[in-house]
Design brief:
The complex is a heterodimer of chains A (417) and B (230). Chain A is α+β, with helices and mostly antiparallel strands and 417 residues long. Chain A is built from 13 helices and 12 strands. Chain B has a 6-stranded mixed beta sheet with strand order 6-7-8-3-9-10, sandwiched between helices. In chain B, strands 2-1-4-5 form a 4-stranded antiparallel beta sheet, covered by helices on one side. Chain A: Keywords: Cell membrane, Membrane, Transmembrane, Transmembrane helix.
Chain lengths: 417, 230
């Protein structure tokens, strides 16, 4: 073991000498690996960034909240199927809760109704904000929502019942209307009606980069009706019991809803049960497709780098034929020569990999600084992986030339000019 | 004299050059005793280099028996040959063959690396070998900073380092001027007197005259084998 370690150490030292003595060549050779590792690392980071952003978005919907709506989030059925369905009524919530109350085994904790509109506008003095996602719901809303109140409070039962004109606003609205802060207690205008701000939600970020939960505005259901009318999109938010299996819960909800809608057995469901899991199932293959294609394409650049290393190692073997002959004459075995050239190519790749990794690290840091919206997690696993890939590249690209070096005939190589 | 170090019986080495069969060596019988100082001479094409390659275990014969220090060389595989070259043979080449990027000390240490000797002992022994050729003060110099004679002395130190059974020198003075050649031959003389077995390959008569035995080759055969006592 010891002589082997000795030899390996010497091989590393010689490889280092060789790389140092041919700086420009070594750098150009390593450049292929550097570019390869940068692109792979950046792609890996981007993919895990997408993944993380995706997870974060889905968690906004809540893992244990199911949404009953007129249309499905994921199904590709024709639009008119959804269009012809009867609208949901906010009163269903009470009916559902009544049914559930009598059933000790129910997986449903509570049903909360919500009415919403996407393009409300809110204003305060000379400032106004468009595309507000206005929601009318009950005081139980917060039991089904993932956001927190940062400032102030949510509305109470008595405010809900008396249709008081109060609202809780998202951080984007708060920043837009009250740049200096102090939103709570102010009265804003919603469609010519006054509404007092009683709370501000904590910032949540964008959902899949599409729309923001931070421009939502929550108000009591009847207050919402007074402002936006009763003909608005209704969603039933169903909070499940802790640890409830989603499939069983779906079955129960379906049964309950069919009872509420009084559907006959032959009739199809005229409502949709939506949950984040279905989203995930829909989007996972797309995400994986992007990952595979992205890594394949960036992998090509590393492949080109590997070919460069193979080429230069072949050149190096040719140039150093006499040296190989001499080393063999002095007692170097095949294995020793093989190891020496392999270690040279691995060292170049490892250096290239390290430089590439640092470059990628710098680039992600820069991107994160300029685009804080885009999460770029730089994981230790990625570091280990890309260094591992570098070593592997070195071994694969160096093996053929190193083998040819180890097989050279010592007498012929010594005579080689 | 002492025991036999090299015993060659009916050694032949044939090459195929296209259709033609080249008989570089054609039935060589030779023995070298421990402590002998010999020269192998012959015109170019006589088989000197092939014989040296076979004696140095850089090549294996097509036919015949070659016994080096009691070991049958013709049956060995590549790695065993490498081990024999490392332990039993000290090469000195006409073109010196030092690695240009390493200093003298590192060049002399090289065979010890392949012998698996650790760093400390390597350094001690390399310094001792360089002292023997009078170059201990240049050990941190690179070959490019030395004269031809000095480089060849470093190469001799490298050949000595593993205390080989024989020192094989292929035209060791071929690239040197007369004065430097004399210095080098002086070193060989001293090494011989210290008990080393030395075989020189040369085409210079006066170099051969420094040795105690001259073997002349012609067309792959031994033409004459003359021992002298001085």
């Amino acid at each position: 073991m010891k002589p082997f370690l000795n030899e390996t150490y010497e091989s590393f030292r010689m490889a280092w000498e060789q790389i140092r003595s041919q700086r420009i060549r070594s750098f150009l050779t390593a450049l292929g690996v550097i570019i390869g590792i940068v692109s792979i690392t950046m792609m890996g980071t981007a993919i895990s960034g997408i993944d993380k952003g995706f997870e974060k978005s889905l968690s906004m919907l809540g893992y244990d909240v199911v949404y009953i709506q007129k249309s499905s989030w994921t199904s590709m059925d024709d639009w008119w199927i959804y269009r012809n369905r009867p609208d949901l009524k906010t009163s269903y919530a009470e009916t559902i809760n009544g049914i559930v109350e009598g059933d000790g085994d129910s997986l449903i904790e509570i049903a909360v109704p919500q009415m919403s509109t996407f393009n409300a506008s809110a204003s305060y003095r000379d400032r106004s904000i468009e595309q507000v996602y206005a929601i009318g719901s009950t005081a139980d809303y917060m039991r089904t929502a993932s956001g927190d109140i940062e400032e102030g409070r949510f509305f109470m039962r008595h405010e809900e019942l008396s249709a008081t004109m109060v609202c809780v606003i998202g951080s984007e609205i708060a920043e837009g209307l009250f740049p200096g802060g102090g939103a709570v207690g102010k009265t804003i205008r919603l469609k010519n009606r006054n509404c007092r701000v009683i709370g501000v939600f904590r910032k949540q970020g964008k959902f899949l980069g599409l729309f923001s939960f931070d421009n939502q505005l929550l108000m009591p259901l009847d207050s919402f009706r007074r402002v936006f009318g009763s003909n608005r999109y209704v969603t039933m938010r169903i909070k499940l019991q802790e640890g409830a299996a989603i499939e069983e819960a779906r079955d129960e909800i379906r049964g309950v809803m069919r009872r509420v809608r009084q559907l006959r057995p032959a009739e199809k469901d005229d409502f949709a049960i939506n949950e984040q899991q279905a989203f995930k199932q829909q989007l996972d293959p797309i995400k994986n497709g992007i990952a595979v294609a992205g890594l394949f394409i960036t992998g090509m650049s590393l492949f080109v780098g590997a070919i460069g290393i193979m080429n230069i190692t072949f050149v190096s073997v040719k140039e150093r034929t006499r040296e190989i002959g001499l080393r063999k004459a002095l007692g170097a075995r095949r294995r020793t020569i093989l190891m020496q050239f392999l270690i040279e190519s691995v060292t170049i790749c490892l250096l290239g990999g390290a430089v590439g990794l640092l470059t990628a690290l710098g680039m992600t840091a820069a991107i994160s600084a300029f685009l804080p919206e885009f999460p770029l997690p730089f994981s230790p696993a990625l570091v280990v992986l890309s260094l591992g890939v570098s070593v592997l590249t070195g071994v694969i690209s160096g093996f053929a030339p190193a083998l040819s070096a180890s097989r050279l005939d010592p007498a012929d190589s010594l005579r080689y000019e | 004299m002492g025991s036999t170090i090299i015993r060659m019986e009916d050694i032949s080495r044939h090459y195929e050059m296209g259709e033609e069969l080249v008989r570089a060596l054609d039935g060589i019988d030779l023995c070298f005793e421990k402590g002998e100082y010999s020269a192998i001479m012959g015109p170019s094409g006589s088989g000197k280099s092939t014989l040296m390659n076979i004696m140095g275990c850089l090549d294996t014969p097509s036919r015949g028996r070659y016994e080096l220090n009691g070991q049958n060389v013709e049956e060995m595989d590549d790695d065993e040959l490498a081990r024999v070259r490392n332990r039993e043979i000290g090469f000195v080449f006409q073109t010196f063959n030092l690695l240009p990027r390493m200093n003298c000390l590192q060049n002399v240490e090289l065979p010890l690396i392949y012998a698996g000797i650790d760093t400390r002992h390597r350094k001690e022994r390399a310094i001792a070998a360089l002292e023997r050729v009078g170059l201990a003060d240049r050990m941190h110099h690179k070959p490019t900073e030395l004269s031809g004679g000095q480089i060849q002395r470093v190469a001799i130190a490298r050949a000595l380092i593993n205390t080989p059974s024989i020192i094989l020198a292929d035209e060791p003075t071929g690239n040197l001027d007369t004065a430097t050649s004399n210095d080098i031959m002086q070193i060989f003389e001293e090494l011989w007197k210290a008990g080393n077995t030395i075989i020189l390959i040369t085409h210079e008569e006066d170099i051969a005259q420094c040795t105690r035995r001259t073997i002349r080759l012609r067309d792959g055969r031994v033409e004459s084998d003359i021992k002298r006592s001085t």
